[in-house]
């Protein structure tokens, strides 16, 4: 449905041992778009994101195709996917607690440093511009940050890799409503810098507000998709995902 998608996923089957968690799900992300996957606990949202990023756990096996800018990356290692412009921010954030905020950010540019890229840390001003709070706390150990600041740091670290596509797993998880609003504002600003974003969320209301296009995943299948504004007005979506907040 998109003329020139940056990401195309089709017929994705992922099994953990004998149990299949995704039954042929697919999606597309257009360049510079925010696309969201919403759905209940256990629907397979994280599985989908990890499969796309090349970060499935050892007991996970995959069938299907994942194309980044038209190229099949199904057998490409996770580091090489990062080199090709895709970067995952996992639900667990994976920060280094005893290291400073700034050193955590620098780790995000480590691949570029290793590749002897000139200006490997050139995203730092943008990150500090998006997250002034991180600049203020740049010498503080990451482990002393609040939940919202940790999510900002995880996002900032991913940006240091200068990705064209960000994969965000539940960025609002465990955050207070005000902080969730702030994080979603930043996600929309990130899109304005030209990054495409695939966003997995249980907070359907916030996700549909920020996104251009949305998929509803239930027990391993895409059951509904459409422009986010349209899904936000769909009676079934309202009933199941937007009714109670
Ligand atoms: P949540 O929002 O709760 O994280 P989700 O939609 O992201 O849910 P997944 O975490 O992708 O869902 O899980 C999909 C299914 O796969 C669940 O039934 C889960 O128990 C199972 N599963 C996930 N990871 C593993 C694993 N490493 N080994 C075995 N089963 C797994």
TrEMBL record:
CDD domains: ABC_TM1139_LivF_branched (cd03224). Residues 7-244 form the ABC transporter domain. Keywords: Amino-acid transport, ATP-binding, Cell membrane, Membrane, Nucleotide-binding, Transport. It comes from the Bacteria. The keyword Hydrolase does not apply. One of its GO terms (molecular function) is ATP binding. Belongs to the ABC transporter superfamily. This is ABC transporter ATP-binding protein.
